[in-house]
Design a protein that fits this description.
10 helices; 38 strands; Rossmann fold; alpha+beta; eight-stranded mixed sheet
């Protein structure tokens, strides 16, 4: 056995390279089953970040269902999701470039437009076969003010304008037809709530002419979030509610809500995007479901007769986008030691097959850092959570007594969560001798509503404290070098990053991807879906403008005393580019090391392979210069001012 080479942390050579991650990885999502066919969406960085609907038939043949030049991505709520639905041998989808709805038969001719107006965006489709129409969420941008959201019907032949079925509230989601087509269920909520704060479930009868009547409020409302309404094959409406503090599965029959299963676990995730699914009916009175507990997801089967939950053994620790039909299921899953994949499972035998992997890189386990769940004390005598990734590389060892630098990752959202699935970005660091702490700070999902609500009124406080306390905890245990602590994050995680660097004195460097620096600007400039999000996280605006100014890093740059690198998409409409520019200008004026990399053609989140690579290599180069370690592998440098 070869003896490991002796080299300082951060100076290890790794077989995991940014080009491989950027060009060898795709995004996977939105699984659907239609007969013997399984569909999913692939986000392909090497094709400019376009989203492609892919189909695998019963014979194992896989094909793209939309041709080159088309991109299945909707801009409803900006975060999209629910951009397609199978229909016969075709797919219906929203094309990103013009936001019109098209019908495509894969390689059989050009897609045919169903809608004509690019100012009318559609998502979250349901097919009403009896009436030859689609039912969808629509966002109308024809007016000069805030766009108007409704539920509409869309004729499949494209010969008639949309007909509005439900209107009057600020937001709608999840229109779902009963199996016989006689009832429609949907979700709705209003400003200032987000769907995980309060969402209502409504049910109405569908008349012969397709209109709705007798709308009934079934569940949800103030301090109760409802997600994922679905009808069972025998016509009973099911949904997930957090009325018990946890998102648990319920049913609605005879006007009453009944629990299907009660468990201190989350059977859903926050509804940032349309089309999410964490449970499905299998036939014969059963449900296959996914649930999260302590940061790990599990697969299980529920017998609706006995209401008993039976675990399904899998090698996966993260499960989502779950669909099922008679005796089988398909879902997206990942684990600490394997890439995310589209998985097809025989529910009778438990045997599974990975139909498509997010990355085909074969990484020797000797270079893979396995996450260790950590709980650490934080403010208010509370406990926070995260995953710690120690440096791992079978070829190297550090000099005795040296401790590794640490990068703390603050996830976006902030109402979201990190998972333990194999993340090659994290492995990019750990295989080079840099430790990583991926924090599920207070406000994250997966730990119940009370944990999620820790962030109410405290964004920029609780998340900041938890990230700082997680880093201190690891340093105090001697697992990392307390003098070489960095923090990185994107979007809301970028705000947490900038707030940690501005209002605390724990970290020595930071990296912000499209991060928020001006809370007031965000409140005034962001899109409809999040335009009142900060009412809960900070306070009502403009009534509490004082808090917005108090918690905005851009107004407190005198507190900054360490270097920061910024990456910003120039077409970002969630966090406008001027925020990164203002923050970088402030650092320049203070004489602090700073780098600003602006990326053409990127929106909120980087989708192009060249920009993903640039961001990965740029951060590593930046940290190496700030922390003073020599990189063993060549990376593209960045211009660091004031260094």
């Amino acid at each position: 056995m070869t003896e490991p080479k002796l080299a300082g942390y951060g100076a290890w050579s790794s077989p995991i390279h940014a080009r491989q991650i950027a060009e060898g990885m795709i995004g996977l999502g939105e699984v659907r089953i239609d007969g013997d066919r399984i569909y999913w969406v692939e986000l392909r960085p090497t094709e400019g970040g376009r989203c492609v609907v892919v189909r695998r038939d019963g014979g194992g043949h896989t094909e793209d269902m939309i041709p080159a030049g088309f991109n299945a991505r909707t801009r409803v709520h900006e975060y999209g999701g629910g951009a397609y639905i199978p229909l016969d041998n075709d797919v219906i989808f929203t094309h990103f470039d013009d936001q019109r709805v098209y019908r495509s038969g894969g390689g059989h001719g050009e897609p045919r437009a169903i809608t004509a107006d690019s100012n009318l965006r559609h998502a979250d489709f349901e097919v009403d076969t009896r009436r030859s129409r689609l039912i969808a969420v629509r966002q109308d941008h024809r007016g000069g003010g805030e766009p108007v959201n409704t539920i509409v019907s869309v004729r499949l032949d494209g010969r008639q304008q949309d007909e509005i079925l439900a209107a009057g509230n600020d937001f709608y989601a999840s229109p779902r037809l009963s199996p016989d087509g006689s009832q429609l269920a949907w979700l709705t909520w209003n400003h200032p709530d987000m769907p995980w704060d309060a969402a209502e479930l409504w049910v109405a009868s569908v008349n012969d002419d397709g209109s709705l009547s007798g709308a009934t409020h079934a569940a949800g409302g103030r301090n109760e979030s409802i997600v994922q309404p679905q009808w069972s094959p025998d016509g009973v409406l099911h949904f997930i509610s957090d009325r018990t503090d946890w998102w648990n599965l319920c049913s609605w029959r005879d006007g009453r809500v009944e629990p299907v299963i009660e468990l201190e676990a989350e059977f859903a995730a926050p509804q940032w995007a349309f089309g999410q699914s964490t449970y499905a009916f299998t036939g014969h009175g059963g449900i296959v479901c996914a649930y999260a507990r302590n940061g790990f997801w599990h697969l299980a089967h529920i017998d609706l007769g006995s209401r008993k939950l039976n675990a399904i053994s899998t090698p996966y620790a993260n499960v989502g986008s779950l669909r099922a039909s008679e005796g089988r299921a398909a879902f997206i899953a990942g684990a600490p030691d394997r890439s995310t994949a589209v998985v097809h499972m025989d529910l009778g035998t438990g045997e599974s097959e990975e139909l498509r992997r997010a990355a085909d890189l074969r990484i020797d386990p000797g270079y893979v850092s396995v996450p260790e769940p950590v709980e650490f004390p934080t403010e208010g005598d509370l406990t926070s959570h995260g995953f710690f990734y120690p440096p791992t590389n079978k070829d190297y060892a550090a000099p005795p007594g040296e401790r590794p630098p640490l990068v703390v990752l603050a996830h976006g959202g902030p109402t979201a969560a990190t998972t333990s699935s194999l993340n090659l970005t994290i492995q990019y660091y750990t295989s080079r001798g840099i430790a990583v702490l991926d924090v599920n700070y207070g406000g994250s999902t997966g730990y119940g509503r009370a944990y999620r609500e820790r962030l109410y009124g405290q964004w920029g406080v609780v998340d900041v404290d938890d990230c700082c306390n997680g880093a201190r905890y690891l340093a105090q245990r001697g697992l990392v070098d307390g003098d070489r602590l960095a923090i990185a994050g994107g979007s809301a995680g970028g705000y947490t990053t900038l707030s940690c660097l501005t209002f605390r004195d724990v970290f020595s460097a930071g990296a912000s991807d499209f991060g928020i620096s001006d809370c007031e600007a965000l409140a005034k400039e962001t899109h409809k879906f999040e335009s009142r999000y900060l009412d809960r996280l900070i306070g009502p605006y403009p009534e509490r403008r004082d808090i917005y100014l108090e918690r905005s890093p851009i107004h407190h740059v005198d507190g900054l005393s360490c270097p920061i690198i910024f990456f910003q998409g120039l077409e970002d409409r969630v966090v406008p580019p001027n925020q990164a520019r203002m923050m970088a200008d402030a650092l320049r004026k203070k004489g602090l090391p700073v780098a600003l990399i602006e990326l053409e053609g990127e929106q909120h989140g980087f989708r192009k392979a060249e920009n993903i690579r640039r961001s990965l290599e740029g951060k590593l180069y930046f940290f190496s210069r700030i922390f003073g370690f020599e990189l063993a592998d060549a990376v593209e440098s960045v211009e660091i001012e004031n260094l």
